Amino acid sequence: MRLVVAECSADYTGRLRAHLPKATRLVVVKADGSVLLHSDGGSYKPLNWMSPPCSMAIAEPSDEARGRGVTSVWTVQHQKSDDRLEIEFFEIHHDSAHELGVDPGLIKDGVEAHLQEMLAEQIQLVGPGHTLIRREYMTAIGPVDILARDAQGRTVAIEIKRRGEIDGVEQLTRYLDLLNRDPLLAPVKGVFAAQEIKPQARVLATDRGIDCLILDYDAMKGYDDIESRLF
After folding, report:
1. Do residues 164 and 186 make contact, with C-beta atoms less than 8 angstroms apart?
2. Diameter of the chain by CA atoms?
3. Taking a C-beta distance cutoff of 8 angstroms, is the pair 87, 70 a contact?
4. This model's pTM is above 0.70
5. Distance, CA of 208 to CA of 168 (rounded, Å)
6. Dihedral, 48, 50, 56, 60 alpha carbons, nearest 10
7. Residues 34-70: pLDDT tens digits?
8. Do 119 and 133 form a contact (C-beta atoms < 8 A)?
9. Strands 211-214 and 72-78, how do they pair?
10. What's the distance, CA 86 to chain centroid?
11. How far apart are alpha carbons 45 and 129 in whole angstroms?
12. What angle do CA 122, 123, 125 make, to 5 degrees?
């Protein structure tokens, strides 16, 4: 990866035209060929960029450009379209290259699989006296995240999401319709569990007799001591 902090301007041509006036920016050149221009703001999103496959050529400026103070010109051309990014450099403050190696990829914490595993181990969070039947209970239309029994021995189907939305309630409704046809399981109660449940999803779940359960991920992981909270 090459990192360049410089005073530069840029022109993008192709499906549209865009111009970045002269300013100090960070230019990132990645090993895959992508080139990104960042300002000191705007969060993670670059001001402009060129995605691979593309090629980059570095050239001396024309006499006209040199007269404006340009010291070098980078031309980044997309290999499958007419898209082109041309960067004019006026003054370079920093230029370094770094070998990052192969990235193992993002390992997400708190995804639905983790929530399912933890809730299965802490099934009492659903209610006192609940016991686990099994995780990933297979049905003809897909697996129910958790199947459990409540203190009265009734079957409970639990659908788990990181963010609970209407689609998740609809999914659980389809599972309940199917499970309640099985005389060995019926009647089956539904529980919609998520770290956050949207108001519309909660209204729909309540209307269909489905309980909602908010999952406190930090508390389930043991990061948050609920007993020691003041509020």
Report:
1. no
2. 86
3. no
4. no
5. 13
6. -20
7. 999 999 987 788 999 999 999 999 999 999 999 999 9
8. no
9. unpaired
10. 31
11. 49
12. 80
